[in-house]
Amino acid sequence: MIEQLIPILAGTLAAATPLIFAGLGELVVERTGVMNLGVEGMMLVGAIAGFAAAAETGYGVAAGLPAGALAGAATAMIFAFFALSLAANQAACGLALTIFGIGLSAFIGQNYISYSLPGLKPLPIPLLADIPLLGPVLFAQDAVVYLSLAAYAAVAWTLTKTRLGLLLKAIGESPESAHAIGYPVILIRFGAVAFGGAMAGIGGAYLSTVYTPLWVQNMSAGRGWIAVALVVFATWKPTRLLFGAYLFGFVTILQFHAQGLGIMLPVQFLAALPYLATIVVLVVISRDRRVLQNNLPASLGKPFLP
Amino acid sequence: MHSPVPRLELLGITKRYPGIVACAEVSLSVLPGEIHAVLGENGAGKSTLMKIIYGAVKADAGTILLNGHEVSIANPAQARRHGIGMVFQHFSLFETLSVVENISLVLDEPFDLPALAVRVKAVSERYGLPLDPKRMVHSLSVGERQRVEIVRCLLQDPKLLILDEPTSVLTPQAVQTLFETLRQLASEGVSILYISHKLHEIQSLCDGATIIRHGKVTGTAIPRQETAASLARMMIGRELPVCQAPAYEGEKRTVLTVEALSLISEEPFGTNLEDISFSVNAGEILGIAGISGNGQAELMAALSGETTVEKHSIHFDGEAIGHLNAGQRRNRGLVFVPEERLGRGAVPPFSLSHNALLTAHRKGMKNWGMVRYSKAREFADQCVARFDVRCGGSGDDARSLSGGNLQKFIVGREIMLKPKLMIVAQPTWGVDVGASAVLRQALVDLSRNGVAIVLISEELEELFEISDRIAVLAEGRLSAAQPRGATSAESVGLKMSGLFDETSTSQSSEVSHASA
């Protein structure tokens, strides 16, 4: 029984990794009071940019992730220009960005449809990987999974322990006050949106170069939306976000195994299960309206012009 | 004898906004260690002038001299480096952060919260401004929030401190504490610019004053050598208007009774109402004093019907109405004027006649469900004429009116509905002296026609001017109402800080002594 669990749990970490990147990025963006609904689009642009860079340069993932990050950040700047510089409606700009990203990535991806990449070998950590059960689950992953955990730690630390984290939260609560005491609110929001785009791009590039190392049109399959939902239901807290991402990953892998075991349920239902389970569990966790309101960045989604 | 170099000197500061000159060639000077008042009405241009000094607004023309040297101040950070600190009228604090976190955001120094907390504690004790650095700002009272703002400025070692209407939200006792702090600062050589429209405060605190009207300097004075009347003449160009309140001679009957009203606030940082009981008679104004955030918004919502409560906790004209919504209550003759003029009292982009329709549709403005716009226009025109609303006409958008004129329109609209009970919250907040006097007189006249009025206000002067009885709402609890003549600003002030258990028990023990 336990032996059967190991591949499921090990797979969970990898399946959750794109969500962790995209979710952490969006979490930082929303902390500053900006809601970028373009995560799905930025992930796809990151995915195709990462795939193309990996395929064309021959450096594989080492070229794919940075390319994905750059492409994601560049896409996010389109959003930032309209939503921040021109104070346009953030929801509309974000939705438009997603549609744009889906189209652009499909267009560029036409040349790569029959391509596949070598992917990434697991990188077992000496000694730790030999621990029974825990070893193969936690310490025999690929390097990007470790990187996602490092990103989580860095974001959580920055948000809670540094002046920058404090400032991001302050701007999310009251951009007017932050402006009154002399902070460049728009500039800092631009930085956060760029970071969010880069993180979504990395998440997308991980999907296309490591997780399933081939290009499929629209391959993020709604993960960007799950990332946006995770941020809200995690009440803008990185640790809850991590938990939500792993839950999604776990159910994703579980339903693959269920399909393999020939469980008598329609495949479409099983494929929908991770999305359903994640939303249901997170809604239950965050059903306390007060907790949600107390953590909600008060200026979220509201246009601000100094 | 040579005169010392002024700490701050303004020469010919001018700032124009589209359609209005906020400051016209304003000059003033402040000496080191001087407490200098900038006196003027709401909308006279005081706040704009201060924002120019603090670098938040750029002047179109004029010179700023600091210690005799011309400077240009492009942003607040630069102002702080020049040793200028500012305490805003609407605080620039972040509610979800702690005191020390808020303070750390304005200091240009390495990020070390524990060390900063120690310094905050030290400075706050030195100046008699007790503060717990670890408390979250949303849990602080308004007075405590102001302390945070002041301590935040003091930590930057300012040479010039600007306070914009600092006492508008303080109890009389807190005002005294603030004044002592400011005098101590001045004695240490800090110059203070004190913005206010309250004459007696300026007379007791300030060494010099510059008076501004419509963006122009109308005079400078030494406040202690002037009378309130002479300062008022410089500030508003005429005598301070006085309200006429004759005694009520009609029938005395109870219109509104609130019994054991409790309410859990729906706002995340709201105040719960606890066991509130009071009653109001026809022909009477009941003043409810207290600082906003002590349950004022919740009480207003419960009385107006915006939040429904237990049926029998509110009786209006002999009927239990706690469960009725605002529209049903309005149908019975209960009207209200909310604190937020734009957004609750009126719809900003609607014309005045459309805004009239919102509550006055009961007065024959509908015909088989169709709106009779001509009636609405007629109603709005009457309201504009009768209450001296200065505007282009009833077709003007609500948002285009000044605060005072819009408030005259809203209060007038409700008065014209011929109510039995009117509930008003902060009717003269941000309203100039002239319009305030008109509004207060309108409320008094209304009550003398047999209408019961509940006046929720932060302004003690206003409450003492027109209320017949005064109760205090603090921390969600209401004190017993006392006749105006039987109480004083000091006693109301004590209750405003939540101290009415002690006073009421001491009073009841006095009563028992007397009866024994």
Can you put this structure into words, describing what you see?
The complex is a heterodimer of chains A (306) and B (516). Chain A contains 13 helices and no strands. Chain A has 306 residues and is mainly alpha-helical. Chain A has one domain (2-295): ABC transporter involved in vitamin B12 uptake, BtuC, CATH 1.10.3470. Chain B has 516 residues and is of the alpha/beta class. Chain B has two domains: 8-236, 3-Layer(aba) Sandwich (Rossmann fold), CATH 3.40.50.300; 254-344 and 417-515, P-loop containing nucleotide triphosphate hydrolases (Rossmann fold, 3-Layer(aba) Sandwich), CATH 3.40.50.300. Chain B is 34% helix and 23% strand. In chain B, the strands form five sheets. In chain B, strands 13, 16, 19, 20, 21, 22 and 23 form a seven-stranded mixed β-sheet that branches. Chain B starts with 7 loop residues before the first strand and ends with a helix.
Just name the CATH architecture of chain A: Orthogonal Bundle
Give the helix/strand class of chain B: alpha/beta
What count of helical segments of chain A does DSSP give? 13
CATH class of chain A: Mainly Alpha
Question: Gist?
Answer:
With 306 residues, chain A is an all-alpha fold. Chain A contains 13 helices and no strands.
